[in-house]
Amino acid sequence: MSQGFLPICKKDMEERGWEQLDFVYISGDAYVDHPSFGPAVITRLLEDYGYKVGIIAQPDWKDKNSITVLGEPRLAFLVSAGNMDSMVNHYSVSKRRRSTDAYTPGGVMGKRPDYAVTVYGNLIRQVYKKTPIILGGIEASLRRLAHYDYWSNKLKRSVLLDSGADIISYGMGEHSIIEIAEALDSGLSIQDITYIPGTVCKVKSLDSVYEPTILPSYEQLKEDKLNYARSFYVQYCNTDPFSGKCLVEPYSDHLYVVQNPPAKPLSQDEMDLVYGLPYMRTYHPSYEKDGGVPAIKEIKFSLISNRGCFGGCSFCALTFHQGRIVQTRSHESLLKEANEMVKDKDFKGYIHDVGGPTANFRAPSCEKQLKYGVCKEKQCLFPKPCKNMKVDHRDYVALLRKLRKIPGVKKVFIRSGIRFDYVMADKDDTFLKELCQYHISGQLKVAPEHVSDAVLEKMGKPENSVYKGFVKRYKKMNERLGMDQYLVPYLMSSHPGSTLKEAVELAEHLRDLGYMPEQVQDFYPTPSTISTCMYYTGVDPRNMKPVYVPKNPHEKAMQRALIQYRDPKNYDLVMEALRKSGRMDLVGFDQKCLIKPRKIKSDMSGVKRKQNCKNSKNVKNNRGGNNKRRKSR
């Protein structure tokens, strides 16, 4: 049974009467005990199984004593970078250092190192030579095998090797961490724990590895990017817990990194258990003096109703982390959490979100998935909705109706992503009607990402005609309801496959919409996505065909500027982009033009100024010549 926050110092341990912890969890985030935070879920689950767990949040990685404050754990250290990849947390896509960190008290930047799990793992090894180290969380999960690292522009080894750790619990981790804990508790050596689904380990020989699929070696991957593309696609086709194979990446004749098949998805009862654990639902009180942890504001009054996503976007890492099989919580579990929310003194009557990676997915996409797994080389929604896909919003609608009726709840928002193509596949308008009527406030954010079918194909997104159809349907529904609400499209520039031609096409679409986005997302190559593989290798790993990749910073700036072509600061970049793409027909005074030519008057005045300067110089030169002549006389 929980006794408040888990121990963060020896005094906390003494108050519980504990001399030694079973596990010490080291996190790159501040300590926030809320189910939206991975470290909270794993530590509370271990606690529920009877293990003694403490947390060292954001240790000083320059001081090895910072990881000794709770002593040596009996079973293992658990290490995570936190809720975000440390490099994404620290750097923008242009590799500029960000100024704030929402997962740190007061939003202060710099409280965790770059490549956090690697640094923390090595820090532990300096002090505790043989204590097991288990990596987890998004950073380790997506770096579990050799991967392209955008920030160093290099192919890196498995994080398991560079961190000095013993095993990775990849994916969401609930099943695998309990199996690892029980194996260690039974006296099994960490070196012998090589068989658990959802884990990656290292071995000296393959004698004990069952039916391995051998990937190209690390040396072969470095020699030829096409080897990496082929290897990546094998990994991509083995992310399903029912059909996935054991993958082996050789590093030498005596060192192999072994990825076991993914752990099975959680059942609804298991999901309810995980989200019903006794979380404090806020940050540790020691952070109050610093102004708290900013990240809590977005999620404190939000409900996680599902995990997993069968959307299959190329630029998303969810396939490698949460998987494609949707897992959901029961209505009872969500209503219980919502009723507890209402009692919070800071609750103002608004539930900020009810969703997950994709809000309107409340079941696996088809019946066969929980027996046979997802299709290896087919997507549920792309390029067209699969005929076997079950399209049904009724359960989600029923849940939202129940939440709206809770006394003290004024409005229930949906802020997670809505898959508009899934809405379009549903012939019943009930969800769209209630979405517009009750669950948005003036605008709905959706993610068409682009309008060029050539780019959308590389993104794994539906054709632009599907989005156009949704726009019409959404507008018609709002008119029917007598509501004046808008769509805010999320758009991405510089994705593999996008040339200046496609970027101009996107600008023309925005012109026709009469809309200019305030923010533009440049494609960000993060580990373990199809798009990042394209970026690094120049080929689409699904068919090994060449793909155009915009990498030049100036071209990327032009593509970004085209999306915000109305901004005067972007004029020169837009003009250059139109000239280079042979689209000077879009420069002029017609309504179809993106920008106007520079005013002739100002151009002439510029010429006059230059001429005046030239004349002035001639006068000075003549004066100088006259003076010289006077002196010579």
From TrEMBL:
Residues that hold [4Fe-4S] cluster according to the record: 309, 313, 316
SMART domains: Elp3
Cofactor(s) this protein requires: [4Fe-4S] cluster
Residue ranges with Low complexity bias: 614-625
Keyword set, alphabetical order: 4Fe-4S, Iron, Iron-sulfur, Metal-binding, S-adenosyl-L-methionine
Entry's transmembrane regions: none
Keyword Iron: yes
Start and end residues of each stretch annotated as Disordered: 601-633
GO molecular function: 4 iron, 4 sulfur cluster binding; catalytic activity; iron ion binding
Coiled-coil regions, chain positions: none
Cofactor note: Binds 1 [4Fe-4S] cluster. The cluster is coordinated with 3 cysteines and an exchangeable S-adenosyl-L-methionine.
InterPro entries: Elp3/MiaA/NifB-like_rSAM, rSAM, rSAM_horseshoe, rSAM_sf, UPF0313, UPF0313_C, UPF0313_N
Residues covered by the Radical SAM core domain: 294-569
Signal peptide span: none
Origin superkingdom: Bacteria
Similarity comment text for this entry: Belongs to the UPF0313 family.
Protein name: YgiQ family radical SAM protein
Species whose genome carries this gene: Dorea formicigenerans
Lineage: Bacteria, Bacillati, Bacillota, Clostridia, Lachnospirales
